[in-house]
Design goal:
With about 350 residues, the protein is α+β, with helices and mostly antiparallel strands. Among the domains are: about 50-115, Herpes Virus-1; about 205-340, Apoptosis, Tumor Necrosis Factor Receptor Associated Protein 2, Chain A. Helices cover about 35% and strands about 25% of the residues. It has eight helices and 16 strands. The chain has helices at about 5-20, 25-45, 70-85, 105-115, 130-140, 165-170, 175-205, 325-330; strands spanning about 60-65, 70, 105, 115-120, 125-130, 145, 155-160, 210-220, 230-235, 235-240, 240-250, 265-275, 280-290, 300-305, 315-320, 330-340. The strands form four sheets. Strands 8, 9, 10, 11, 12, 13, 14, 15 and 16 form a nine-stranded antiparallel beta sheet that branches. Strand 10 (about 235-240) and strand 11 (about 240-250) form a beta hairpin. The protein starts with 6 loop residues before the first helix and ends with a strand. The mean pLDDT is about 85. GO terms for molecular function: zinc ion binding. Belongs to the ZFTRAF1 family. One of its GO terms (cellular component) is nucleus. InterPro entries: ZFTRAF1, Znf_RING, Znf_RING/FYVE/PHD, Znf_TRAF. This is Zinc finger protein (TRAF/RING)-4.
Length: about 350
């Protein structure tokens, strides 16, 4: 009968197994490789980072004529800041003047960045940057999701792996008919607002007088002690009258001198009548994105009345997905429709 092993013998066997699986020299080599890879990754992150926000670009990467990199959001912000301050935009690294014409896109850097590893913000798993967005949006079990009965009033939100458990306990699928009708009426009201805008536009197409034109607005400065940026078009003629379209910028920022600080900037447009009229004109005006423009603009429909003593309409806020990009452009371009129904 075999004798039982002593505690010292058991410890010796365990040590022998560990050393046989990963010899000391192999462990040191693996640690050295991991350390070298980590150092290379850190160096690449530093070399390829944006010179403004000091982070790796997540989409398009621009560079100045000297090769300094900027993510496209910071590039547009620099151009917008320079336009608001009435000074040329410059690279934050070498101070060379930058513009849309002088800066180029760096595709090689974009491809290199897309292969660098990054951590998922929720689960911590490592993925290439090219696939991290799809993982965080559709695959990650820790991503925050909402209940599919959200439209019925459910306010639950939590990790995706807890969604099935929530479904089993959610009370909203079992609401009474009256409660469901209230939820459906709320959804119907939101949908009705969108349909109403579409119906208004289609109804206006039957107006007696319809005119439209492409309007280009140029940047100007006010004559104040602290000058302000505004945009104005040349005179254009529609419906037998002369008009000017102006645009004003509202900039709300914590540190106007720091281009890396985000700003809640908005653009508002104002239509001005430049000719004399003998009687009041009731117009419906529609502002749209100009042809070949890449910046999305939400259609803006408004009513305005012009008379001999009323040559300006109220300022109308124009919603767009990237105001800084518009401000960084040389001109603002919109398509303008006028609808006039004679009484």
């Amino acid at each position: 009968m075999a004798q039982e092993m002593t505690s010292s013998e058991i410890a010796a066997v365990k040590h022998l197994q560990e050393t046989s699986e990963h010899p000391p020299h192999k462990k040191q080599k693996m640690e050295k490789v991991n350390t070298s890879a980590k150092r290379l990754e850190d160096r690449l992150n530093h070399i390829l980072s944006c010179s403004v926000c000091l982070d790796l670009p997540i989409s398009t990467c621009m560079q100045c004529c000297h090769g300094h990199l900027m993510c496209v959001a910071c590039f547009h912000h620099l151009l917008a800041d320079a336009r608001l301050k009435d000074e040329p935009a410059s690279c934050p690294s070498c101070r060379v003047e930058i513009s849309r014409g002088s800066c180029t896109r760096n595709l090689a850097v974009e491809k290199a960045i897309s292969e660098l590893p990054t951590k998922c913000a929720t689960c911590g798993a490592i993925f290439p940057r090219s696939s991290i967005a799809a993982h965080e949006k559709h695959e990650c079990s820790e991503r925050i999701v909402t209940c599919r009965f959200k439209e019925l009033g459910c306010v639950w939100s939590g990790p995706a792996h807890e969604l099935s458990n929530h479904f089993d306990n959610c009370v909203h699928p079992h609401k009474s008919p009256n409660e469901l009708l209230q939820c459906l009426n709320s959804i119907k009201d939101q949908h009705s607002q969108q349909v109403s805008l579409l119906h208004n536009i289609t109804n206006l197409l039957s107006c007696e007088n319809i005119a439209y034109t492409e309007v280009q607005l140029q940047p100007y400065r006010t004559d104040d002690f602290v000058t302000k940026l505004f945009y104005a078009s040349n005179r254009f003629h529609l419906l037998g009258q002369a008009w000017v379209l102006k645009a004003y910028v509202s900039a709300v920022e914590r540190h106007p001198s720091n281009p890396t600080v985000s700003a809640d900037r908005k653009l508002s447009f104002q239509l001005q009548l430049k000719s004399k009229v003998s009687e009041a004109m009731d117009l419906d005006v529609l502002l749209l994105k100009a042809p070949y423009e890449k910046i999305n603009v939400t259609p803006k429909l408004f009513h305005a009345t012009f008379a001999s003593d009323r040559s300006e309409c109220e300022q109308q806020l124009l919603e767009t997905d990237d105001v800084n990009r518009m401000l960084g452009s040389k001109y603002l371009n919109v398509r303008l429709f006028m609808f006039h129904q004679k009484h």
